[in-house]
C-alpha cells in the first residue's frame, strides 16, 4: 500500500498562488485610469466577442484579465447582485465597495477551498461626482482587495505597463491624452508592439453623461482620439485642432 502524499498547507497555498499568477501573466494587460471626466478602461484585446470590460450598474464598471470563462462567471454574479440589491433597496445602495466585498468573499473561498484557484484579476470601479469621489478597487485571485488611485495595470507584463503609467500619468488629463498614455503603456508589454484602434477594447465611465454613465468606444472613435492626442503632442503648445476634426 502506498503512503499518502502529504503537502503542507503553506506549500499548497504557495503552489496555488504561483499557478494563478502564471495564468494571469499569460494574458494581455488591461489598464484603468482616471481622466478629466471620469474613469477610462483600456484593454489590449483584439477579440470582438470576448469582452474584458463591461458595465455592471449605473455608475459601476468591471475590468478583468485572466481566464475568460472564470471572470465572465464573476461578472454575471456581480450584475445579479447589483440588480437584486438595487431592486430590493435603492439604486444608490449598489456601490463598488459592496461589489468588491462580494467578489473578495467569492475569490477567497474559491482560493482556499478548491484545488484550482481562479486565474483572474479584477478591477471594480465607480465614478463619483468628482475625481475625489471616484472609487477603484483591484481584486486578486485570492480575494485580496486594494483601494487604488490614479491608475491600475493588471495582467500580462503588468510591471512594465505600470512603469510607463507611472512616468506619463498626470491627474485631470483630457480623454485623448489619457487614452494615448494608456496605449503607450500597453505597448510596453513587447518591444516592437504597436497597438491599432481595432486591437483595443476601450470604455469610459463619464460622470457628465445622462443616465447611463458607461460607454464603450467604437474603433473609429478610438482612432480619432489617438490622432487627436498625436496632433496635440506634435504641435507642442497648440490646441491639437488639426487632429480633432470629426
UniProtKB/TrEMBL annotation:
Keywords: Cytoplasm, Hydrolase, Proteasome. The formation of the proteasomal ATPase ARC-20S proteasome complex, likely via the docking of the C-termini of ARC into the intersubunit pockets in the alpha-rings, may trigger opening of the gate for substrate entry. Interconversion between the open-gate and close-gate conformations leads to a dynamic regulation of the 20S proteasome proteolysis activity. InterPro entries: Ntn_hydrolases_N, Proteasome_alpha, Proteasome_alpha-type, Proteasome_asu_bac, Proteasome_sua/b. It is found in: Cytoplasm. SUPFAM superfamilies: N-terminal nucleophile aminohydrolases (Ntn hydrolases). GO terms for molecular function: threonine-type endopeptidase activity. The keyword Transcription does not apply. Pathway: Protein degradation; proteasomal Pup-dependent pathway. GO terms for cellular component: cytoplasm; proteasome core complex, alpha-subunit complex. Component of the proteasome core, a large protease complex with broad specificity involved in protein degradation. Belongs to the peptidase T1A family. The 20S proteasome core is composed of 14 alpha and 14 beta subunits that assemble into four stacked heptameric rings, resulting in a barrel-shaped structure. The two inner rings, each composed of seven catalytic beta subunits, are sandwiched by two outer rings, each composed of seven alpha subunits. The catalytic chamber with the active sites is on the inside of the barrel. Has a gated structure, the ends of the cylinder being occluded by the N-termini of the alpha-subunits. Is capped by the proteasome-associated ATPase, ARC. NCBIfam families: 20S_bact_alpha. This is Proteasome subunit alpha. It comes from Actinomadura viridis. The lineage of its organism: Bacteria, Bacillati, Actinomycetota, Actinomycetes, Streptosporangiales. The gene is prcA.
Amino acid at each position: 500500500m502506498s503512503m499518502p502524499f502529504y503537502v503542507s498547507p503553506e506549500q499548497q497555498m504557495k503552489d496555488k498562488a504561483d499557478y494563478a499568477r502564471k495564468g494571469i501573466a499569460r494574458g494581455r494587460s488591461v489598464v484603468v485610469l482616471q481622466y478629466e471626466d471620469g474613469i477610462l478602461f483600456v484593454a489590449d484585446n483584439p477579440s470582438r466577442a470576448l469582452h474584458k470590460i463591461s458595465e455592471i450598474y449605473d455608475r459601476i464598471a468591471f475590468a478583468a484579465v485572466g481566464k475568460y470563462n472564470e471572470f465572465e462567471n464573476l461578472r454575471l454574479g456581480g450584475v445579479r447582485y447589483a440588480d437584486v440589491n438595487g431592486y430590493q433597496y435603492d439604486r444608490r445602495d449598489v456601490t463598488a465597495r459592496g461589489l468588491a466585498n462580494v467578489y473578495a468573499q467569492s475569490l477567497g473561498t474559491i482560493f482556499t477551498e478548491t484545488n484550482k484557484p481562479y486565474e483572474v484579476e479584477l478591477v471594480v470601479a465607480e465614478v463619483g461626482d468628482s475625481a475625489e469621489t471616484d472609487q477603484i478597487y483591484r481584486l486578486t485571485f485570492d480575494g485580496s482587495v486594494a483601494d487604488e488611485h490614479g491608475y491600475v495595470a493588471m495582467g500580462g507584463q503588468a510591471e512594465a505597463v505600470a512603469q510607463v503609467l507611472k512616468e506619463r500619468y498626470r491627474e485631470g488629463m483630457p480623454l485623448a491624452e489619457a487614452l494615448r498614455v494608456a496605449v503607450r503603456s500597453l505597448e510596453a508589454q513587447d518591444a516592437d508592439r504597436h497597438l491599432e484602434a481595432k486591437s483595443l477594447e476601450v470604455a469610459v465611465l463619464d460622470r457628465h453623461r445622462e443616465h447611463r454613465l458607461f460607454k464603450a468606444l467604437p474603433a473609429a472613435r478610438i482612432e480619432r482620439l489617438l490622432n487627436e492626442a498625436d496632433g496635440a503632442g506634435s504641435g507642442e503648445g497648440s490646441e491639437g485642432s488639426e487632429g480633432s476634426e470629426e
